[in-house]
Structures are given as structure tokens and as C-alpha cells.
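[User] Once you have settled down, look closely at the record that follows, and write a paragraph about the fold.
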Amino acid sequence: MKNPLAPETVSRNKYIAIVYQFQYADSSPGVEGMQGESVDKAIRVLEKLGHRLTPQRVLVTKIILENVKNHPTFKEIHKLASENLPRLGVSTTYTIMKMLEEAGLIRTFEIDGETHIDSPEPHVNLYCEDTGKIIDLDEPEILETLINTLRQKGVNDPAPIVIIKARCNNTSTN
């Protein structure tokens, strides 16, 4: 018989408590569909990969997935997580972010020396230099044209993170 207080059971119980504590909390404005179910799926992926479910990992994962559509910076994620876990170290947050990236749950890219977090689905990012806003261009024809052009140039398996820099102050960017 398994000890109910074995470390994996305790970690699992902490995971459940943390997920449900934050499950229905208000999310940031503009967050689209990355709550509850996606967090649970991500946690299952991490479990399958053999990662322990610490409160830090669950919290940072939840914050990242809830805010991924807003392309948060690493610093923003750490600040949000630190509000709930004040002793959370920068290196712990970074390690969790890299773990999620290696698991294929997120991608990261840099703009002006800051690491931004992005969804893993192929798409084009429009970076408005004047406002600092990053907008997803999800239209499939844009990506198809780009991938076909890259293949014509000899790139065999393009999985690009595409960032277009522009000035957007006079442009409607929805």
C-alpha cells in the first residue's frame, strides 16, 4: 500500500489545490481561451515528461498560459508569479519557462533584448515599434506564402518565428 503522504502524492495534492485556487481567477484583459483545460493539459504533458509538480511550476505554467496571447516578457511573468510566491527566484521562473518551451507548450523570442513568450502554433508576429504592442497575424495565407518562399530559397523544414517590425501609430491593429 502506498503512503498517502508520499512526495508525489503531496505534489499532486498541491497541484490540485493551486490549480483550483487560480482556476477561476480573473485573467488579464484580452486573454483568450488559455485557462483551465489548457493548464490541465500542460500539467499532464509535464507529468508525462517526468517533471515534478511543484507549486512554483504549476503557478508559473498557469500564468504563462493565461497570458501567452499578450506576448508577455519574462520579467512580466516573474513579477506576476512573485505576487503569489514572493520568494520565487528569477532562475526558477526561467527554468520553468525553458521547461515549457522544451515541452513544445510555448515558444520564446527576443525583441530589443527582452524575451517574450509566444504560443507554439506557427504564425507571424507584428511588432509595433512605436507602441511596443505585439499582434498575432494568424491568417493562414500569410504563413503559407512565407513558408513556400523559404522552401524556394532552400530552407527544408521551416518552422519560423516571424517578427515583422513596423510603426503602427496610424494603423488599425486589431
Notes: Confidence is low (pLDDT under 50) at residues 1-35.
